[in-house]
Amino acid sequence: MTSARDLPATPSIAGNDAEEDSEVRAARDGLLRQALRHSSGHSLAILLCSVTSALVSLAEPAVLGHALDLLLSQSPGATRWTLFCAALVVAEILLDSTDALLVGTVNARSTAWLRTRTLDRLLRADPKRATASFAPGDLATRLTANATEAGTVPAASAGALAALLPPLGALVALALIDVWTAAAFLLGVPMLVLLLRTFARSSSMAVGRYQQVQAEIADRLAEVLGGAQTVAAAGTAPRERRRVLADLPRLGTEGRAMWRVYGRAVAHSGVLMPLLVCLVLGVGGLRLAAGHLSVGDLVAASRYAALAAGAGAVAGVVGSLVKGRAAARRTVEPALLPPVAYGPSALPADGRGTLELRGVGVVRDGARVLDDVTVTVPGGTTVAVVGRSGSGKSALAAVAGRLTDPDEGSVRLDGVPLDRLTEEDLRTEVLHAFAQPALFGTTVADAIAFGALAPHPAAVRAAARAAGADTFVTRLPQTYDTPLTYAPLSGGERQRLGLARAFAHAGRLLVLDDAMSGLDTVTQREVELALAHDVRAGTRLLVAHRLSTAAGADLVLWLEKGRIRGVGPHDVLWRMPDYRAVFTATDAGPDQLSDARTAPDIGSPPRATSERQAAGEKA
After folding, report:
1. Could you tell me if 404 and 128 are in contact, meaning their C-beta atoms sit under 8 angstroms apart?
2. CA of 186: how far to CAs of 276, 293, 312, 406, in Å?
3. 186-191 long-range CB contacts below 8 Å, 24 or more apart?
4. What's the CA gap between 552 and 529, in Å, rounded?
């Protein structure tokens, strides 16, 4: 069975232009071939059923015509041929019913496969690059509506041959009955081919534009729903509603354009096909009058002309394939994000979490977020990363824990480059907590236990106590077994559950990216004390805004415009006016400034204790 890793990968994600990038086109076609192979047995059954049904429909006019001639001549074999004709009709009904069931099954299987493979590749990609490349609403559209449309391609492809058999077979049958009736029909074939070709080209462009506008509306809707409380508090619901629905007229325009293309094809075929049938009947009537055709032959010729005229129905099959391929392109693009590659190396068993950044540079949208960052953090050290907004603190935290790879330089943990580590070692020894944690699982306990390894229930409760979450969790109706959907959580409580999750899985490096910003000063100090004494020892990297956090850390890493401005104990850096300016009233309130004077000893190595005490006195 193929996996998402088999998909061709490219670092460039194509846009939604009408002209497809060759790599995206190749990836799309490869994905559809894999989807077809995934349901190859069912697809083969569709092919057999549809082809058999087409052959039965081709046999019916000849059998009917022959039975009619036998009935008119009162031949003894008329009854047998009439029953044969009835059996063909019943067989066609059964085959079509089976085909419809198989098509539904293959569509569902293919859609599920496409969604699973695309989501798997998306989750394996660099999360920073994934979120930068695709907006949430756009991704939701790609994995739902677009995947559903793309999932119809394997079944439609399997049945495409059957769609061509009746018109082509009918034309051959016409030639066998009477070459002049076939010649009459052939007069309109060039116009029919031109009609189908024009329809396929125009339909592809119209469908692509419609799907793009649809995704833009979905993205704005997801944005507004995610910030529903902010919208309600600001009283801007009418304005946001207008913004979300602003492109509805454009969606309507593109939808009407798409249906105009289809309508023109149907209208043209609706005029062309009856004319061809009438022409065939006219020629057939003249041949009947001349004695070259029997009544049964004329009836069969008329039925075959109708089947041959059904070539216009091929436009429907072509339209379905075009729409599905356009949707497949949108579905496959997230799967083109290169997966995060892991190596074969393991961390040394005696490592203490020494973190090294060597010439690290990160570029986003053409701007340097981090520039030549070189620093070594001794194992077991608590480091506060400080700086003004936009200085690159979160980018450094992401690089340090390999949530994203640097564009330049390397990051090492206990001497091993992070990109050489096995996935197991990286995700069990490097843990993160965020300012706005996402909580997964059914219950509160599930949310804390969520991770690469499932901790013991006792460890879950211990981590919750360390994060200051136990006090409010035990007040919930079912304590730790309370469903998340029934647990009303404030922003600070969500942060404490996020911290508890990180503490429950703590490894030798723990990265807290502004993960205590929602806690009050007293709770933060309690969490810092628990982090020092009750959580597995290791290196702590704290993205900090509060002065008390910087004063209580062993070292401070001061960033400015993506570069390291200074590294050292807080009391040493505090002598610099520019460093003190980082903690102005804009970034920290008066209570936070006073916190620095009373920052507690949070259990850092002895070498830093006197420095922290001196920092408190100087602050």
Report:
1. yes
2. 9, 19, 14, 64
3. 187/276, 187/279, 188/272, 188/275, 188/276, 188/279, 191/272
4. 10
Burial class (CB in 10 A: 0-12, 13-18, 19+), 19: exposed
Q: Dihedral, CA atoms, 79, 81, 82, 87, nearest 10 degrees?
A: 130
- Cα separation, 117 vs 120, whole angstroms: 5
Which two tokens mark 587?
């970034």
Cα–Cα distance between 502 and 504 in angstroms, integer? 5
Q: Is the pLDDT of residue 445 over 70?
A: yes
Strand partners, 63: none
CA distance 265 to 254: 17
Strand order in the sheet with 355-364: 367-377, 355-364, 408-413, 416-417
- Cα distance between residue 57 and residue 170, in whole Å: 9
3-state SS, one letter per residue, for 569-609: CHHHHCCCHHHHHHCCCCCCCHHHHHHHHHCCCCCCCHHHH
**Of the candidates 485, 443, 435, which has an alpha carbon nearest to the alpha carbon of residue 464?**
443
Interatomic CA distance for residues 209 and 250, integer angstroms = 10
Banded model confidence at residue 511, pLDDT cuts 50, 70, 90: very high
Q: Mapping DSSP to helix (H, G, I), strand (E, B) and coil, where does residue 541 land?
A: strand
Can you tell me whether residue 187 is helix, strand or coil? coil
CA separation for the pair 373, 570 (Å, rounded):
19
**pTM for the full predicted model:** 0.64
Contact call for residues 573 and 528 (beta carbons, < 8 A)? no
Query: Using N-to-C axis directions, what is the helix angle for 491-504 and 457-466, rounded to 10°?
Result: 130
Q: Phi first, then psi: give them for residue 123, nearest 5 degrees.
A: -70, -20
Mean pLDDT over the full length of the chain: 79
End-to-end CA distance of the chain: 63
CB 258 within 8 A of CB 207: yes
CB within 8 Å of 338: residues ≥ 6 apart: 9, 10, 11, 125, 126
Q: What is the DSSP letter of 545?
A: -
Condensed to tens digits (0 to 9), the pLDDT of residues 592-611 reads 444 444 343 333 333 333 33
Assign residue 514 a region: left if phi > 0, alpha if psi is -120 to 50, beta otherwise? Answer: left
CA atoms of 68 and 474, how far apart (whole Å) = 85
| CA angle centred on 56, ends 170 and 151, rounded to 5° | 90
Are the CB atoms for 137 and 222 separated by under 8 Å? yes
- CA atoms of 386 and 569, how far apart (whole Å): 12
Residues 6+ apart with CB under 8 A from 481: 443, 444, 445
User: Would you state the structure tokens that stand for residue 591, as one six-digit string?
Assistant: 């209570």
For 361, the enclosing helix (H) or strand (E) is strand 355-364
- The mean per-residue pLDDT over the stretch 61-68 comes to 82
- pLDDT score at 556: 94
Between 35 and 609, residue with greater pLDDT: 35
Residue 292 has what DSSP assignment? S
Backbone angles phi, psi at 475, to 5 degrees: -90, -10
Neighbours of 598 (CB within 10 A): 12
DSSP one-letter code for 376: E
